[in-house]
Amino acid sequence: TPGITIDRLAINAKAIHFDAAHLATPFAAHIENIALRAQAFTTGTHEAQRSINALPALAAEELQLTLARADLRLPRAQQAFATHIEQLQFGVTQFSTRNPQAQPFTFAATDESGGKVRATGDVSLASAHSSGDLQQLSLLPIWRYLAPQLHFDLEHGKASLNTRFAINWQSALRYHIDATTLRLDTVALQARNDVNSRFDLGALSLSP
Description:
With about 210 residues, the chain is mostly beta strands. The protein is about 5% helix and about 65% strand.
């Protein structure tokens, strides 16, 4: 059975909701105004789809994903965590689920604190690998996610991180981060169990 070729493909959804309460790490996600665009979109032949463990054979010269807002909630026992991102834009050129060669991508979004997150790099679903450069990572969402392991609450503060990353999820999730530049601005920490313990930082830049 031959594959399918579509010159231009557009998929729009007003809202999508996921509730994965059965997973080892349960989560719920709600996505609003999601749009998927593809140019020269193709699917593989019937023979290429036979492997149960393989990803569907899909390819596109250009693939773009945008969404207005995505909310994520983790109902963990220690402390529930919820955050959201807005104005997400993700694009891949020469996209393929079967090509082990890396395909260039761009990513941009706004986090819950208004911080801008940007990333550029390469990704290959076939090789289960991605690497690239990450810029403008906000401090607040990460701090709140790690809150159960920390003894200080972040009252306010901004962080700008420019770093090189590599992620592999072929057998288990593995990642490597090389921090190139970290800048902290107006960070204020308050000890959770001691009102007299406080840390204030005006500005600090760290680089190797």
